[in-house]
Records
---
Amino acid sequence: MQRILTGDLKKHIGKTVTVQGWLHKKRLLGGLTFINVRDRAGLVQVVVKDKTEVEKLRGLQIGTVLTITGRVKEEKRASGGVELHDPKLTVDVPVTDEPPIEIDKPLSHKSDNLDTLFDYRAIGLRNLQEAKIFKIRSELARYLREFLQKNEFVEINTPKLCSGAAEGGAEVFKLDYFGQEATLAQSPQLYKQMMVGVFERVFEIAPAFRAELSATTRHVSEVTMLDLEMGFIDGHEDVLDMVQDMVFDATKRAYDELSDELKSLNAPQLKLKPKFPRYSMHQIHELYSKETGNDTTKELDLIPDEEKWICEYAKDHDGCEAVFAIGLPKEKMKFYHMDNEDGTARSADLLFRGVEISTVPQREHRYEKLLAQMKAAGVDPDSQGFAAYVSAFKFGLPAHGGCGFGIDRFTEKIIGLANIKEAILFPRDINRLAP
Amino acid sequence: MQRILTGDLKKHIGKTVTVQGWLHKKRLLGGLTFINVRDRAGLVQVVVKDKTEVEKLRGLQIGTVLTITGRVKEEKRASGGVELHDPKLTVDVPVTDEPPIEIDKPLSHKSDNLDTLFDYRAIGLRNLQEAKIFKIRSELARYLREFLQKNEFVEINTPKLCSGAAEGGAEVFKLDYFGQEATLAQSPQLYKQMMVGVFERVFEIAPAFRAELSATTRHVSEVTMLDLEMGFIDGHEDVLDMVQDMVFDATKRAYDELSDELKSLNAPQLKLKPKFPRYSMHQIHELYSKETGNDTTKELDLIPDEEKWICEYAKDHDGCEAVFAIGLPKEKMKFYHMDNEDGTARSADLLFRGVEISTVPQREHRYEKLLAQMKAAGVDPDSQGFAAYVSAFKFGLPAHGGCGFGIDRFTEKIIGLANIKEAILFPRDINRLAP
């Protein structure tokens, strides 16, 4: 028996073929039984007339695994343009209970309680719309990875079990590691910088862990991060250009290659230029204050409403809904960022559709300056967690920069979801550690 | 200034170009100074005659970051077939201390103490041979991923913070998760099986955590695993075929596309057939006992010497150094494996160059049977960690199987390294949590 996927049935019109999949929907209509069968390619409608065959389906519920041999008939009104007629059914795995969550409705979660959705995630993802989110996510990661490989970035795997908190801060998970304290990596920051000294250009796509105490639509305790780092830059602009080109390439490919999927999920129309506009924080404060009458010129950082506003502004004014906010305040600076010595850090936020999707700094690569910045930040360069890191600078690191880039957040924003957790298969937050 | 990579200098013979890189070696010879400069593409030799330029290098050590403008001269005896002459040097980042570990020797670690190697990992990896290990590793992961994507596997990201130990067992790291106990995922086993119900075919490449109490060349507490799972299989053979084809494809590509790198690392000659031989455990015991006089026919599992022996046997006898050992003993079975009901589990070990690189079972997909096997194994199907898992079966999972496949181990065996840790950037074991 050769299995034919539902997506390929059109090539077999008039022939008798075998499909395998899950019972996805069952309707009785005028003495006939119509079933939808789902496989990894989509759905096909099967018209069951024969009484013996109808009888096989009695009492069986959504999720039942079926093997069906039937004749492919063209049917323009049906999903995929074909139906299966005169089927012979084999019940491979019977399901006799009703599923705890509806899976044959479009995007049921929009109205449902998210907690219910996540409680029954393993079943709810069988909804075709839900599954599409993660097919898109898988493709986005592929586009990003292919862009970086084309640009000679080496993919690395850095440890998630560490001896200290790389970025300091309280939001770190701790665990017992054979009698000593270990932390879970909040990012591969230190490791990717060290690897600039080996490969010049590196990236990693991996989980990162943050003990986020907030319960919001934006906070999760485990994220999937794309981290990249590149050396021998001429200046900060080189890093901004690389991240811009990566985001442009992946977004463009998504809207070109996944347009049907994005449309069916009601993803926003795309407005993007190959060169993202760049506004300084100062400019954004000025523009926003003038436009809204809400004076933000004394604010250190962008306020959330400004992040939204500047994206809308750039969309209208520059025809591009991705925008860099440059000249971030020195106060926001981490010890490994480069200080512009003018009250700003050599860092930029990449904003897309109203939120920051990445921070893109140049790093301080001069050994003595780095040591001074670490000490000023209360980080001990001689401690076990930092000794190797500072040695990489002592023995020569070129000018470099990079970014952390959330795959979850990017997926959320590309599709236009309301909550980052909808872009994560099994989200984790302060209230959720299962399934 | 346009930077030219050392690997591209051959295209610029007779021209004056600019390269950037690290001082990798410095020699004085007959009044001339020869330096090797390293960038991400390799090395170039620079001949420094001019006294002002020679003076700039005084006191500078390996690792110094340089920008060099010079004339490209063909020189067949030099690495890359060219040299740079009449250079103008700019010292971008001076290094004045000698590095703690030699980096200009081939594969220094073979004779060095591994602990020293790992203590100075950030610097030691600048050795070109060391770096090659990880370029090969990066490519191996790309080949594996591309094979799976071509075969319609969806890449997923499953949580590493879990509420229970998926596979039971003692070797699990525990941590405090906002007041409740969490475990670090030993594998994505439960999640990938649930996702068969959504995507049919899934894979993930991600860290996995094992609190290994042993300190050997094979034990590390953090590994990078490729996990795959596929549904709607006709039988166990389908899974074996897929894993076989994946390993064949990735290995073949490595030996075709990375032959120079593999040769320079003294990787073993490859002997591989597209169809890996399959021997039952029983056959292996018989063959081994007959050949060696060491009677293993009463052994439950393969003994380590048999794993080595059968790989050698298959290499000579079948012309293939990868081999499946099928019909594993039921005693080795996990609760989610399928029982053959004849004293064996429907599982196979994939052996390559003397060691197991993957276990490839069919899973028990029948709800009632699975529940019984869980209970027999002392696993509570109703506990928080397993409720969603069993629900995926209750609501219909087709016959499926998959494997876990260590990227570290595969890299080690492809190159022919002596220790799995040499294939890991920053290895973790019972004695090592840094750098």
---
Amino acid sequence: MALDPVLRAIVTICILVFSAKVLGEVFSWRKIPSVLGELLAGVLLGPFALGSLIVVNGTSLIQINDIVRAFGEIGGILILFVAGLEMTFRDFRKVGVAGFVIGTVGVIVPFIMGYWLSLALGFGTITALVVGAALVATSISITAVVLQELNQSRKVESRMMISAAVVDDVLGLAILGVIVSFISTSTPITALNVVVIISTSLALWLAMTVFAAIVLPKIINLTSKGSEATVEAAATASCFGASALAAALGLSPIVGAFAAGMAVASSKTIEKIRDYTKKISVIFSPVFFGLAGAQFDVRSFISSDWFFYAFFAALVIVAIISKLIGCGIPAAFFLKDRSKGIKVGVGMISRGEVGLIVAGVAISADAITRSTYAAILGMIMITTVLAPILLRRAYDKEPPEDALTTKEDEANAPDYIPTYPL
Amino acid sequence: MALDPVLRAIVTICILVFSAKVLGEVFSWRKIPSVLGELLAGVLLGPFALGSLIVVNGTSLIQINDIVRAFGEIGGILILFVAGLEMTFRDFRKVGVAGFVIGTVGVIVPFIMGYWLSLALGFGTITALVVGAALVATSISITAVVLQELNQSRKVESRMMISAAVVDDVLGLAILGVIVSFISTSTPITALNVVVIISTSLALWLAMTVFAAIVLPKIINLTSKGSEATVEAAATASCFGASALAAALGLSPIVGAFAAGMAVASSKTIEKIRDYTKKISVIFSPVFFGLAGAQFDVRSFISSDWFFYAFFAALVIVAIISKLIGCGIPAAFFLKDRSKGIKVGVGMISRGEVGLIVAGVAISADAITRSTYAAILGMIMITTVLAPILLRRAYDKEPPEDALTTKEDEANAPDYIPTYPL
């Protein structure tokens, strides 16, 4: 059974896609976000667990070679493209002042807390930046699904959560872009350099996003008159082209994919493109999450010293506290209601896709150690499981949907509820 | 602009997908099969033409690296999976005696003529086998589309063409499997070995096809109760798993993909799977045809000696004559009408996907030279362009749809008209 690298990759992808789906399915029956199932599939099948044990004719059945890694990287690009597809610029402007403030403060507080925690424990600047960035973005899909299940999704505070989560997604990606610039160019880190890189990155990101928003919808609308699958081909080319352009500009490719998605979202054939992109994600996205899981070294948790456990515990506490403070206090201010403010804070605790991407990019670039990666992944898993439970409890004794919704809230409500292709 | 291999591959795939679609679109407006446009995109962008001239910052923009090649190989697998999806075993049995005889004789005659032509011109046995195999399969999608355009698709002879084309597709793939075994195991070629390998291959193919037909529909039907995208994931796993299994058994992976497609075709959620597979093919299939085109060395045609031109001319003549004889004579016998027999023969002239796959597999394995490859590709292009023109002319003075259709023909008509994701 001598297979060439392509067939080895096909076998690995086949196993990853299928088992990620099976575990995701089992998890979603148990009302646990299915992305955790896909991650677990990666952990179980990875080289640190069963992966190295399943051997056929002397070679391991699951082999993570360059082709599998390419599928994972393309998976990350597609996930961000899909996220961008769910949000036009109009939606983005509609989120309103409250959402913007809650989102921004909810980014600054976790970032600074994570950054200082890591520095205080003796980690380097790059690691501290990665830990801070991984704490920034709420897993909006999980929060949205829970609010829908609780029948609370039209309440004022629920809309604030969604709006703020949009903002922290974008800021999280911008911060990731900055960190990637630091890692790839190994610029000495001074206050001036940070300001320069952050402003250059944001300016480039803005320029590219505006450029994409002007050019791409025209291309897409032009191709929409073509025969079968022409729009789909144009969408693929837009997503891949923008990713490569972002990379060429020194930004992260996924930031380009997100910009392309936002640009394409305002074209006429958006429904067709959404359907298409979700379908092609079926083959790439589980590889992304599978590889994220496969890099999780269970031994970090079993054979670690007290220092690792202390760091991990502190990280989880920071993850919870920082969103409760950073989102809860501004929300309480805007809503003039302490208990509702706490609910917003609780709703924002879950971390997900963006955090995984931050940690995944960092470990692929050797910017963080395997044990830091394991701690971040553990934090994401715990907050993702915890947030729905706490949120459910917070709403437990309340009637579904109250009458507090005003006309003004209605107008400010975003249409944006991203659905990741999980 | 230092991009890693994945991003280089993304740039190349982006350009291939988009330009293949644009040229395919232009061709289909001009009523030329769009697959020729996709091939031409590859020829133009390949390393032997413009590909090496488009240079950004010192590196070629289009780089065919291992990841691009993997996408092409997966594209070939998906094309055959889609072809399999269009045909259940019931359809396969329905094609009737006439279709089976016309298809089989239409395989034997071109194969032997191509094989002897190559041997007579001094080529080796492997090359002769590849040339023979590349002549075997009709491009069923092109014929079917032309018959529909001419409003002749329900006539008796039209049905015979479709049935026979189904049979020659399968036989063409079986022969390819045999040749791949020869190439990969470098078995000495004796009459006994040929018989042994052909029978082993066919037996393995049959066993795998029956196994797939029993197991896969059960898996697919089981997963059809799952949430979004579970069936799609199971279909992907079936296709990839069967390809790898075929490769492990020493067959060609695409034969496995075809068997998996046929097996899945009888499941309940076939429409969903068809839609999904066509969508994911958008990203892979142009890479397959693009790479097929990119390997076409225009210089073979410009700077070649008289020997090449003689071989090429003879190959095109053999391609036309062999199907006219091999399909036309049995068809005239079954239809008891010489002019209709000729029409069937003309309709079967066009070669396409299977021929490309045969030639592509052979050149990837270094089993044929670049100039032989160019001659085969040229033959495919000429027959594909010629067949619709000749067929149109043959039907020119006839009324659309006659009343010759009998009840019996109706019952024997196959539902199978494969639509390749072009």
